[in-house]
Each structure stands twice: as C-alpha cells, then as structure tokens.
Amino acid sequence: xxxxxxxxxxxxxxxxxxxxxxxxxxxxxxxxxxxxxxxxxxxxxxxxxxxxxxxxxxxxxxxxxxxxxxxxxxxxxxxxxxxxxxxxxxxxxxxxxxxxxxxxxxxxxxxxxxxxxxxxxxxxxxxxxxxxxxxxxxxxxxxxxxxxxxxxxxxxxxxxxxxxxxxxxxxxxxxxxxxxxxxxxxxxxxxxxxxxxxxxxxxxxxxxxxxxxxxxxxxxxxxxxxxxxxxxxxxxxxxxxxxxxxxxxxxxxxxxxxxxxxxxxxxxxxxxxxxxxxxxxxxxxxxxxxxxxxxxxxxxxxxxxxxxxxxxxxxxxxxxxxxxxxxxxxxxxxxxxxxxxxxxxxxxxxxxxxxxxxxxxxxxxxxxxxxxxxxxxxxxxxxxxxxxxxxxxxxxxxxxxxxxxxxxxxxxxxxxxxxxxxxxxxxxxxxxxxxxxxxxxxxxxxxxxxxxxxxxxxxxxxxxxxxxxxxxxxxxxxxxxxxxx
Length: 485
Known about the structure:
Layout: H1 5-19, H2 29-33, H3 43-48, E1 65-72, E2 76-77, H4 87-102, E3 111-115, H5 126-133, E4 142-145, H6 151-164, E5 170-178, H7 188-196, H8 203-210, H9 234-244, H10 249-268, E6 278-279, E7 285-286, H11 297-301, E8 323-333, H12 334-339, E9 346-355, H13 365-377, E10 386-389, H14 394-404, H15 407-413, H16 434-437, H17 444-459, E11 463-470, E12 474-482
Parallel strand pairs: 3-4, 3-5, 10-11
Antiparallel strand pairs: 1-8, 1-9, 2-8, 5-8, 6-7, 9-12, 11-12
Helix pairs in contact: 1-10, 4-5, 9-14, 13-14
C-alpha cells in the first residue's frame, strides 16, 4: 500500500481530515452555531477513544443473542457481473455461503428473514424463494421486510425479537438488492386501460378503450431514489444538508478518498473476512467488491455536481453508488449456539430505531439514534471501541459528525441537554464504508454488523456501535459486543 501514490495521498487526506480547523460561514442557523473544530482534532475526542468500561452488557432475565457468523457475496457496481441475475439468485448464494461457512444443518434453522427495497415483482417474498432455492425445507418459514437502507438491520432485529421471545433459537437474517434490473412500469393511464380490457365484453367496448390511448400513455415510470412525501431525491437532500452544516466540497472529497483508501488497504490485507466468492452462472467467479477505487483529490475535483447544478457539492465520487449484492448472518440464542459447538463472533445487544422530518433531517438518523442506544446500555461514546456508520454520502457523514458534536443542535433539535460527541475518526469506518465497498440498499446492515465484529476482534475492542440513516427520515443504531475470546 505504501508504494501506491494514490493510497499515500489518501492517508495524507485522512490526516488533513482529522486535524483541520474550519471557519464556518453562517450558511444556516445550524452552521452558525456548530463547533468550529472538525472531527477528532479536539483533545476531548482523542481522550474519548480510550474505553472506560469493560463490563458486559448482559442483562438479567434477558436472553443473550449472538451472531454465530455472517457472509456476503462481493458487492458489485450495478450493470456488471450480476446484471443477468435475479435478486433471489444473489440471496441464494449468500444463504449457501453462510451454510458452508457455519456447517449449520438446514433443519436447525427455524426461520429466515431478508430485507430488500426495490422488489422484483416475480419474487416479492425474496426470502422464501431464496430459501427454497438454497435447499431449505419447505417447512421453514421465511418473510421479507423493507425499511429502505436499514432493511437488513430490520431483518436482524426481527430475528432478535423471535429469539428473545422464545419463539425460535436459530434464525438467518439477511438482505439483498439488485439495482441492475429494477421494475419499470407503464404509466398509470396505460395500466388503467390495460386492466380494463379484460372487462370489456364486446369488440366495440375494447376498441373504445383502445381509442383513448394517447402518446403520453407510453411514457414509462422509472423508479427513483426519491422521497414520496417530499418528491426530493436523496442526493438533493444530501446537498442541502451539506450546505446547512457548512461542509465544503473539499471536505467531502477528502472523506471519499479516505473511504476508498481504507477499503483498498483492508481488501489487500484480507481483512474483509465476510466476503465469499461467488461463481456467477455463465461468467467468472467474483471474489471481491469492484467499487473500491482509490483516486486523487485532483481527479475527484474534476467531477461536476450530480444533483444541484452547477453549484452543488455532492458528486458521483463522494456518494455511494448503485450496487448489487446480498448478505446473511446466522443468529442464535447463546445457549443454542454453545450446545451446537459454535464459538460466536459477537453478542447483539441494545438497538433503537428513530425517525425525523424527511425534508430537512432525512439523513440524520445516526445523530438521533446514537445517544439513545448508548443510554439504553448505560454507556458513553468513550466506551465504544469501533464505529461502523453507513456512508450514504460523504456530506451526510460529516454533517452527522458536526450535529453530534454540537450542544446547540442537541438542545434545539433533539431536546437534549448536551451533545453526545462525535466519534473519534481513528475508530471510525477503518475498513472503508458504503462509499467505497458499495451499498446494496437491503444488504448493508449485515455488512456493518459483521465488520464491527471482525474489527473488535482484530483491534482488541469490546464494544462496537453500528448506525445508519434511511429514506423517510428514519435511522437505526445497535451495540455489538465482542464474544469472549
């Protein structure tokens, strides 16, 4: 890595990110009152990196729930090697990979739940179709959930609920997205006419319906990553959020360089242990994520604004890209896992879901969820050894950092007395994130949890905090505790 000039520059950018002092222009009521010091250059934040507590988060009367292991097929840019497949093909590959890695008997798995966002209408319950395709018994129930970018987070916590309530002892949770092939519909006028044709009794009635067709009936309806309630795309929201928090284009590009550089380093060092190879039918075997592309600030700076043109700061390079992929994790009660001879990766502990205004706070889920989940567990930011946050946009991550480190924001928007504090950058997404590894909407949550578990073991930590924003102004956070080694 050190010999690669792009990667060397990436690590210089990391240093710039962690020590820069910015003078914030008063672009909004938020920016005028947010802290001037950026990210982890504050001595307080460096001090916060040292864990103060090593107690377990086990609770009396509450089952310990563990993640035995987890896998994901490589996350690929849409339109590449997975483009001829269907979502259940990807999900099936993740399920088979998980079974191969854990040797779990199919009959031991009592339930399967998967998350997805843009559903293939032929396999709307993709969890069930994937389970049958992977060889699970037709007696094994399966269902599919959707919660935008936190769909597999919801799948996991659904599994946690089934186990905690005593209904099940072993559940597979996962997620999938195939952005290479999304449903494209006829216009509503055309659909209405076509649905009316079978009801027409006579030729005259059918000809009457057909005669009403106009050229605009043929305009297709394309799926858009946009809020139904606001009609605003997520990219536009990210641009406005970056402006509101005075996040410059340079800061966003620097963060994107950091993400790609760290992902490349982790990839080269074999740290992404959840990635399994996948023999794509009719194509080669895919062995790694293909969106990891370290670049230079000069190259990134040449890109034009992607959403708010020409003056926006969000570009294709500092945003997560459309991605195909699937992931799966095996969840069990600790008692069941030990009885079956497993050494779990981690405990899944407290979690919360939050929701805010989808117009102005669409992407601030981590800011709202983090203090709540810490309070549930009786922890502070100083106790967390590993942070894994979903990177929808570089500007979104940096805005959350500033919001979390602002007393003014906490008091005026969150109803809290004081800020929770920003995560120290040296403990944050150290193996890359969604900007570089990719973001299959329904599958990212499992990646975050497994990365947190593997980092805890590698780095000698005990507690990990996973957080993500999602469409609709929603968010999620979960605490992961390393299983005793």
